[in-house]
Design goal:
single chain; mainly alpha; Rna Polymerase Sigma Factor, Chain: A; Arc Repressor Mutant, subunit A; 2 domains; elongated
């Protein structure tokens, strides 16, 4: 069914393309937010990606490849958005929808905050492969195709990204010259 809609959009049918936007907006926004870590930039990138897709959809050879192609367009836009704002740093705010509800709600929020801060320290390349692999469950082959990089590069980026993420999640080690801080229990 979707291939038929994509084929119509390729022929310039604006209503068909609007249907694709409605169907794919949330998915692409989640990916952009995962890469950019800022909801406002993610929304801008998602909108720009749809504009780019509308301009380029006639070049899409295989309507069955629309989803993979849309990720490639979105990732390019996310990279442009980050380069356009060199002083940009990912937002560290958590929206209520992102805060998990658990028995130990404070521990969950603290863990999510720690993960968010660690994620912000990653490069765009590392954030991108983690988002594509873990958020979208893409294989390394699909990531390589989406990013137009060799498979070995996708594999090494994911490995380095996970190593950097784990390192950033570790609590700081107190040096011998600094006395360990003691927590006050109330």
């Amino acid at each position: 069914m979707e291939q038929h809609v994509v084929a119509r959009a390729r022929r310039g049918d604006a209503d068909a393309f609007e249907a694709l936007v409605v169907d794919h907006h949330h998915r692409l926004f989640r990916v952009a937010h995962g890469i950019l870590r800022d909801p406002h930039l993610a929304e801008d990138a998602t909108q720009q990606a749809f504009l780019d897709m509308w301009r380029e959809i006639s070049r899409l050879r295989d309507p069955a490849r629309f989803e993979a192609w849309s990720y490639r367009v979105l990732v390019r836009v996310c990279y442009r958005e980050a380069k356009r704002r060199p002083d940009w740093a990912p937002a560290s705010e958590l929206s209520p929808a992102q805060v998990p509800l658990a028995a130990d709600q404070y521990g969950s929020v603290a863990h999510r905050d720690q993960l968010e801060r660690a994620f912000q320290h990653l490069s765009m390349d590392h954030r991108t492969v983690i988002v594509l692999h873990h958020l979208l469950d893409m294989t390394l082959e699909a990531i390589a195709e989406t990013l137009d990089i060799p498979l070995g590069t996708a594999h090494s980026r994911l490995g380095r990204a996970m190593k950097a993420l784990r390192a950033a999640m570790q609590p700081p080690v107190a040096s011998a010259s600094q006395p360990a801080r003691q927590e006050v229990v109330r």
